[in-house]
């Protein structure tokens, strides 16, 4: 690529002139996504219910970021976040539906109310977000929506039935939206991280079901860092992924490929 190539600026500012809203941006994956988008040139509204940490992240990113209190189950909060984006930066053309909660319980003890609560946040929160940005994205000539699902949206996880069901739901929300919103130049993709080193993943809810056995690590030999996920989101948010929509993108260190066959496992099997 030469210095006169019109794509040269993309090397350092691939998201220049992009305006994003990131839900659940106060910590963990969401904060890493906000930082990466700003580093790549975007202007970002960070939304969360954790006001002090959310404001701190926005302030650390300078004039390219702003904070909005955002409960993703509340339509008015979404409207306020969109209006803040429009008033501060312009019409949003990136939406990252990252806000989510995790819940661990045996299936027989998981109540309909547990399922309903996780659906309201993890799945319907994404629906409300997409609805909220639809008009401004159309006005901007299109955009990119990234719904943060999970490997639990494709495979079951013991003790996490409500979480897996809600993540499977937001996967299909993303695919359905991708089909219908393509006419407006709006792309919609879901991403599916395996376990990521974040406060939520290290909480008691996950510790109750996560195996401490290092042999259960994916083929790449480690769990993901928030920055790994942020890099994938930044790619899907930008113009270099302009022909990608309606897809599920796994970022799991090779977990979906299968399991390693260790010498220890072989000895145990022969017994």
Please report the distance between the alpha carbons of the first and last residues.
Answer: 59 Å
Helix share, percent: 40-55%
Helices and strands: which structural class?
Answer: alpha/beta
* CATH superfamily label: NAD(P)-binding Rossmann-like Domain
Series of secondary-structure elements, N-terminal to C-terminal = EHEHEHEHEHEHHEH
- Side by side, the strands of the main sheet go 3-2-1-4-5-6-7
Overall description:
By secondary structure, the chain is of the alpha/beta class. It has a single domain, classed as NAD(P)-binding Rossmann-like Domain (Rossmann fold). 41% of the residues lie in helices and 14% in strands. It has 8 helices and 7 strands; from the N terminus they run E-H-E-H-E-H-E-H-E-H-E-H-H-E-H. A 7-stranded parallel beta sheet has the order 3-2-1-4-5-6-7, sandwiched between helices. Helix 2 links the parallel strand 2 and strand 3.
Question: Quick summary of this structure?
Answer:
It is an enzyme of class 1 (oxidoreductase). The chain is an alpha/beta fold.
Notable characteristics:
Rossmann fold, alpha/beta, 8 helices, 271 residues, 7-stranded parallel beta sheet
Task: Annotate the secondary structure layout.
Blueprint: E1 19-23, H1 28-39, E2 43-48, H2 51-60, E3 65-69, H3 75-88, E4 94-97, H4 112-140, E5 143-148, H5 161-181, E6 186-193, H6 204-207, H7 226-237, E7 248-251, H8 263-270
Parallel strand pairs: 1-2, 1-4, 2-3, 4-5, 5-6, 6-7
């Amino acid at each position: 690529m030469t210095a006169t190539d019109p794509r040269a600026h993309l090397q350092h500012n691939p998201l220049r002139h992009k305006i994003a809203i990131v839900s659940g941006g106060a910590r963990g994956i969401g904060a890493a996504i906000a930082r990466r988008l700003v580093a790549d040139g975007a202007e970002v509204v960070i939304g969360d219910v954790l006001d002090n940490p959310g404001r701190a992240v926005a302030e650390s990113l300078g004039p390219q970021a702003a904070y909005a209190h955002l409960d993703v189950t509340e339509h008015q909060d979404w409207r306020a976040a969109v209006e803040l984006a429009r008033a501060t930066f312009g019409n949003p053309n990136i939406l990252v539906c990252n806000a989510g909660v995790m819940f661990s319980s045996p299936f027989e003890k998981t109540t309909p109310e547990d399922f309903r609560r996780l659906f309201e946040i993890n799945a319907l929160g994404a629906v409300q977000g997409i609805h909220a940005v639809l008009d401004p994205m159309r006005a901007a000539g299109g955009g990119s929506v990234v719904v943060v699902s999970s490997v639990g949206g494709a495979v079951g996880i013991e003790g996490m039935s409500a979480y897996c069901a809600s993540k499977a739901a937001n996967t299909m929300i993303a695919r359905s939206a991708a089909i219908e919103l393509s006419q407006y130049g709006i792309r919609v993709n879901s991403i599916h991280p395996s376990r990521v080193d974040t406060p939520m993943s290290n909480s008691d809810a996950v510790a109750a079901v996560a195996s401490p056995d290092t042999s259960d690590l994916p083929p790449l030999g480690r769990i993901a860092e928030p920055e790994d996920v942020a890099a994938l989101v930044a790619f899907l948010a930008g113009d270099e992924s302009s022909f990608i929509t309606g897809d599920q993108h796994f970022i799991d260190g090779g977990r979906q490929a299968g399991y390693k066959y260790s010498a220890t496992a072989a000895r145990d099997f022969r017994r």
